[in-house]
Amino acid sequence: MYSEWASLVPTITDNIQSVQSQSVLGKFGIAGGRDVAAVVVKQLAGNLGITNAAEPSSLSSDQEVQWCMDVICHGLSLPLAEHDIIKDCVNIYCEWITALNPGVPKISIPKPICESPNEFGRKIIKHLYNLFVPRPGEGSDTINRQAVFCHRVLRTLQDTAQNSRILTVETWESLLLFLLAINEILLAPPIVKDDVGDQLCERVLSVLFEVWLLACNRCFPSPSLWKTFQE
């Protein structure tokens, strides 16, 4: 039915390659990038109200938010041994993406994100791909932690798809492409035995199907998306 339409597999590949090479912190070696990420995300996560009262975000411009997102993107790609940094990155993005949900935005979400939730939401979704990439050479304990983080992100994205009434066509497409991409990598032959894909395979499939059905009701996927889904 959709054979004459172009597949979006090349788009998914480009998105993956861009997000994995996006952060300039990757140019400074593991230790340098890790140290910068640790300082930045610890302060951002401290304002979310998880352990203390939430505080207003000090990020007031698009450039400031973009810079911090570049750091968070890098933090999500760090080895799983950097558990605390990755946890802070996940907490920040799961909080910030709630700007797409109904209700009064939380004070800890930067103003630029509240003013342009779809634009920044698409970037957050793209960056979250780094969290789902299996890491070779990791032990079972760290892989279990990665799975916990991934489950939280999937719950947050499900909630956004179910409850948001402001998602644009572009954001729906970004969300569906993201879910297709993580299914592709997690359902592929494992890099190592008992990697994170073994724990998440059923979950990522169920979320993909649920969100796809929601999209059919609210913003019907394009023929190219259907072609990609079939592949």
From TrEMBL:
<feature type="domain" description="Ral GTPase-activating protein subunit alpha/beta N-terminal">
    <location>
        <begin position="143"/>
        <end position="231"/>
    </location>
</feature>
<dbReference type="InterPro" id="IPR039930">
    <property type="entry name" value="RALGAPB"/>
</dbReference>
<dbReference type="Pfam" id="PF20412">
    <property type="entry name" value="RALGAPB_N"/>
</dbReference>
<protein>
    <submittedName>
        <fullName>Ral GTPase-activating protein subunit beta</fullName>
    </submittedName>
</protein>
<dbReference type="InterPro" id="IPR046859">
    <property type="entry name" value="RGPA/RALGAPB_N"/>
</dbReference>
<dbReference type="GO" id="GO:0005096">
    <property type="term" value="F:GTPase activator activity"/>
</dbReference>
